[in-house]
From TrEMBL:
<dbReference type="GO" id="GO:0004806">
    <property type="term" value="F:triacylglycerol lipase activity"/>
</dbReference>
<feature type="signal peptide">
    <location>
        <begin position="1"/>
        <end position="22"/>
    </location>
</feature>
<feature type="active site">
    <location>
        <position position="243"/>
    </location>
</feature>
<keyword id="KW-1015">Disulfide bond</keyword>
<feature type="domain" description="SGNH hydrolase-type esterase">
    <location>
        <begin position="35"/>
        <end position="250"/>
    </location>
</feature>
<dbReference type="GO" id="GO:0019433">
    <property type="term" value="P:triglyceride catabolic process"/>
</dbReference>
<feature type="disulfide bond">
    <location>
        <begin position="118"/>
        <end position="127"/>
    </location>
</feature>
<keyword id="KW-0732">Signal</keyword>
<feature type="disulfide bond">
    <location>
        <begin position="176"/>
        <end position="225"/>
    </location>
</feature>
<dbReference type="InterPro" id="IPR036514">
    <property type="entry name" value="SGNH_hydro_sf"/>
</dbReference>
<feature type="active site" description="Nucleophile">
    <location>
        <position position="39"/>
    </location>
</feature>
<dbReference type="InterPro" id="IPR037460">
    <property type="entry name" value="SEST-like"/>
</dbReference>
<dbReference type="Pfam" id="PF13472">
    <property type="entry name" value="Lipase_GDSL_2"/>
</dbReference>
<keyword id="KW-0378">Hydrolase</keyword>
<feature type="disulfide bond">
    <location>
        <begin position="53"/>
        <end position="77"/>
    </location>
</feature>
<dbReference type="InterPro" id="IPR013830">
    <property type="entry name" value="SGNH_hydro"/>
</dbReference>
<protein>
    <submittedName>
        <fullName>Putative secreted hydrolase</fullName>
    </submittedName>
</protein>
Length: 344
């Protein structure tokens, strides 16, 4: 059952016995809303950047603020870690702040570096090593960092309803892009890491008296490569990749609003559509050529991984062809070579 559904059921039960939603009385009437956090709160993935922090008008904080008549102070910033929230985002919090939302923690554990490493061909990257390093930070350093951020929010905005959201699973076990080389095992580990990160965020936010909003159930069936994805695949500009798109931000808004303001988002009668620019075949081939898979150093790594260097050379040579069918065949060949390495 999704967080949205659980919250609505709980709200209905409370109202049936004459109760009210558990939002502090002093904050219930306040329209002050401060949105903190990282790129998942800044709306990265919606292709509507407004400044260096992104802060999209299609990001979930804007969607909630418009639907609920809140005065939004948009502090969330793409790339932010817990230290950035402490240094740059908390200045406007106060006793009059009624609502606070946030996603944070992904960048502390190296979200971008891990995704980048795991997207490379298996013979060129150490995806498992990157994941292991990420989990080490998650288990040893991140708990204290989250406690510090949550403590500051509680001290500065004592009357606010605070909703801390988690992160969705990005993958469904299938890599449908010719530009990325995720194995099934790698995608499983990445999703498992997301679940562990979410559990930590849930535990530490609850310890601070905040509401944790779990979104993995809401995003079920909408991962990268699903028929109706709420998360962008590798796309251009590159920073839009592997972030919630406009439909995904609507999903976040629907999940967060009940905990933040005590009522659900209005049902949209218009389907959210979004063109996610994907590089054309020539651009995809050029991007793979930029990896220099046929260089001496990279061919040496391919051989050490059990591949025949000649196979790599022939696949890469196809990418230089002017015939689109040959280029596509080269990209497919490289996917097959990656599978040989990662399936062993």
């Amino acid at each position: 059952m999704s967080t949205t559904t659980r919250t609505l059921l709980a709200a209905g039960a409370a109202l049936a016995v004459g109760g009210t939603l558990a939002i502090a009385p002093s904050s219930a009437s306040s329209t002050s809303y401060v949105a903190l956090g990282d790129s998942f709160s800044a709306g990265t993935g919606t292709y509507l950047r407004t400044d260096s922090c992104y802060r999209s008008p299609r990001g979930y904080p804007e969607l909630i603020a418009r639907a609920k008549g809140l005065d939004l102070d948009y502090q969330a910033c793409s790339g932010a870690q817990t230290a950035d929230v402490l240094a740059d985002q908390l200045g406007t919090l106060g006793a009059g702040t009624g609502h606070v939302s946030m996603t944070i923690g992904g960048n502390d554990v190296g979200f971008a570096d891990v995704i980048t490493a795991c997207a490379l061909p298996g013979w060129l990257s150490d995806c498992d090593g990157e994941i292991d390093d990420s989990l080490a930070v998650l288990r040893t350093e991140l708990p204290g960092r989250l406690d510090e951020v949550y403590g500051e929010i509680a001290d500065r905005a004592p009357n606010a309803a605070v909703a801390i959201a988690g992160y969705p699973y990005l993958f469904n076990g299938r890599d449908c892009s010719l530009l990325t080389f995720f194995s099934r095992a790698e995608m499983t580990r990445l999703n498992d890491g997301t679940a562990e990160l979410d559990q930590l965020i849930a535990d530490r936010s609850a310890a601070s008296g905040f509401t944790f909003v779990e979104v993995r159930d809401d995003f079920a069936g909408h991962a990268v490569c699903d028929r109706q994805p709420w998360v962008n695949n590798l796309s251009l500009p590159i920073d839009e990749s592997f972030h919630p798109n406009r439909a995904g931000n609507q999903g976040y808004a629907a999940a967060i609003a009940p905990s933040l303001v005590g009522s659900p988002m209005p049902v949209s009668r218009t389907a959210t559509t979004q063109a996610s620019p994907v590089p054309d075949l020539r651009a995809q081939a050029d991007a793979v050529l930029d990896l220099r898979l046929d260089s001496k150093a990279n061919l040496r790594q391919a051989k050490e991984a059990g591949l025949r260097p000649g196979e790599v050379r022939r696949a890469v040579a196809k990418l230089r062809s002017s015939d689109e069918q040959v280029v596509r065949a080269g990209l497919v060949d490289l996917q097959a070579l990656d599978a040989k390495v990662t399936d062993d």
